[in-house]
Amino acid sequence: MNRKDKWLYQNFIGSMSNPDEYQQYEIDKTLAKHNIIGLYALIALVYLSIFFDIEREFLSPFTIGGVLLLIVLGCRMSMSRFSADPLEIEVKDQEVYHKLLRETRNKRIIFLIITIAYMLLTTIVIAPILAGNSLNFAILTKFSTYLPLIVIIIFTITKDSRIKLIDERGKHDE
C-alpha cells in the first residue's frame, strides 16, 4: 500500500491498521457511492441556484462557483488515470439478458420520474417562492423548459450498452 492510500485509510476513514483487500474494496465501494450521491446533490443545488437567479434576475457567486466546480470535476474525471474501467456484463442466457435490460430500464425510468419532477417543481414552484415572486405556469408552454427533459428522456430510453449477450454457438463452430 502506497503512502497516499495509507493516509486515506488511516486519516479519512479512521482505520488504525492497514485494511485487507476485502475491507479496501468495501471502503472504496462506500466512498464511490457517497461521491456519486454528493455529485447528484451538487448538480441539483446548482440547478436550483440557476433558476433562483433567473427569478431574482441576479447572478450569484454560488451559481458561478457551482458551474465552475462541475466543469473542473468533469475534466478531472475524464482525464484521471484512476478512473473506473468501463463495466461490461456478459450474459449467456436470453432470459437473464432480457431480465437485466428490464431491471436497468426500470431503474432509469424511476430516476427519470424523480428528475423530471424535481426540474419542473424547481422551475415552476420552488424558485419563484424563494425569490418572492408569484408562481409562473406560463413557462410550461415554452420549448426551452422541456429541452433538458428531452435530453434526459433520450438517455433513459436507449438500451443499456453495458449488457452484452454472448453467443456460445459461434465460439464452438470455429
TrEMBL record:
<feature type="transmembrane region" description="Helical">
    <location>
        <begin position="109"/>
        <end position="131"/>
    </location>
</feature>
<feature type="transmembrane region" description="Helical">
    <location>
        <begin position="58"/>
        <end position="75"/>
    </location>
</feature>
<feature type="transmembrane region" description="Helical">
    <location>
        <begin position="36"/>
        <end position="52"/>
    </location>
</feature>
<protein>
    <recommendedName>
        <fullName>DUF3278 domain-containing protein</fullName>
    </recommendedName>
</protein>
<feature type="transmembrane region" description="Helical">
    <location>
        <begin position="137"/>
        <end position="157"/>
    </location>
</feature>
<keyword id="KW-1133">Transmembrane helix</keyword>
<keyword id="KW-0812">Transmembrane</keyword>
<keyword id="KW-0472">Membrane</keyword>
